[in-house]
Amino acid sequence: MANAASGMAVHDDCKLKFLELKAKRTYRFIVYKIEDKQVVVDKLGEPGQSHDDFAASLPVDECRYAIFDFDFVTAENCQKSKIFFVAWSPDTAKVRSKMIYASSKDRFKRELDGIQVELQATDPTEMDLDVFKSRAN
Question: Of 5, 12, 94, 128, whose CB is crowded by the most CB atoms within 10 A?
Fold first, then answer.
């Protein structure tokens, strides 16, 4: 287990699932949570799941980290994909939770090599499909 600067450990499964998403496209998304002073995998999205499924998998009043494999078509009509890191910190989450997630985020992100775009979201409108589309190009 890697040790984060904030004292937060990162469970090995976090990196393994990320590598499977990146290399084999085994998952559409991965949701992570901090539990007992370590980052662990919370939910896995099947390859056929959509952005709506991803958004619905994030709790309304708790912070999470998430990875989303976003497929899109460029203006030149090329099929592409980008790996997004989402720091989900809803306004309704506890202040202590927001602080823990904020202080651990950069260290956790460094464990996941291959993130292409980062999003910070405090409510669902900050990570809707249009936001992903605009940030992917």
Answer: 128
Tokens coding 60: 């309304």
What is the mean pLDDT, run by run of 10 residues, along the chain of 137 residues?
Answer: 61 97 97 96 97 97 98 92 98 96 95 96 95 92
**Which pLDDT belongs to residue 7?**
65
Residue the block writes with tokens 């099947």: 46
By C-alpha distance, which of 34, 15, 45, 13 is closest to 93? Answer: 34
Q: What is the residue whose two structure tokens read 């309704």?
A: 92
> What pTM did the predictor assign?
0.93
Q: In what order do the strands lie in the sheet with 117-121?
A: 2-3, 9-10, 38-45, 29-35, 64-73, 79-88, 117-121
* Beta carbons of 35 and 10 less than 8 angstroms apart: no
**CA 130, CA 137: separation in Å to the nearest integer?**
11
Q: How many other CB atoms are found less than 10 A from the CB of residue 100?
A: 17
**pLDDT at residue 20, as a whole number:** 97
Lookup: tokens for 59: 């709790």
Per DSSP, the three-state class of 120 is: strand
